[in-house]
UniProtKB/TrEMBL annotation:
The chain crosses the membrane at residues 57-76, 125-153, 174-198, 210-237. Keywords: Membrane, Transmembrane, Transmembrane helix. It comes from the Eukaryota. This is Uncharacterized protein.
Amino acid sequence: MDVAAACMDQPTRPLSPRAGRAMQGIHQRGAPTFPTSPAVRQPSAYHSHRQARRITWVNGIGVALLSVYTCALFLYPATMGFAESFNYRQFWNPTQWSFPAVVIPLSDEGYQSAGAVGIFLPKDFAWIFALLCGIQSLVTFTLHLAELCIYTARDETTWRKASKQTGQKRTSNALLALLSSYQTAILFFLKPFAHWLYGLTFVIDIYNGVALYAAPAFYLTIVVSVFLAFSLALMLWRHSGPQPTTFGHLQTLVDLIDTWPARRDRLYWGDKGPFVGHEAYDGHAEIRHAGTHWLPLPAVQMDKRYA
């Protein structure tokens, strides 16, 4: 909401409120302005925003690729045999949750140039760097997209507090907002845990090569899948109540918030009486107006239309 208020004062391309859209949420952002009846339940973010659908599908592809990588780590030692893995005994570490490792050795030139020990050549560093960056980019990108879904759900939860009896604070402490939101609390603990698991999926030895461990990759896939399932549930969740959804969309917030309270006051959303000029829409039917105020407002009337 602070960003929406700042965008209204932006000198070059300010956001301007569009009158008569008091009950039109983000799913109607491109629809013409017309009186709308309140809905008992609101559409989900997945059905309201095209970007939410794209993020969900891309996340699914990311988890699928991570699952393929994990399956390859399990199947390769079983098909090639443990003894055929280069220097397998040296890399085998029972503390890595008792699963075999896929060992990728250095190039032959590295061993020929340094005898029995082997050294990193530039091309060895290049392919190992590319491999690990590719895997980490996949994990990081998938987690980041799921994080966007969680932030979207948190923004909507914050906005919907305006229709509660206590209202919503105009501004809040960022740390307290983090700790008081279960969405961001789960994000705060689950995302670092996933990166820690990724750090256990490989070991680099400058004399022998890189070992990729299957068990940590398997648990990493599970954690990322749970993270994705949580973000998908938030995207599919349909909020109850007549208050239109915004999911952090700035123009929709500007349309719905017609009165901005001072930064120290609370924001309330509700019925604000008959809509001035409703005869332009329908001369024989009463059109009411819903909006915001710094004082508590009555609940909207479900049998009326609002503009």
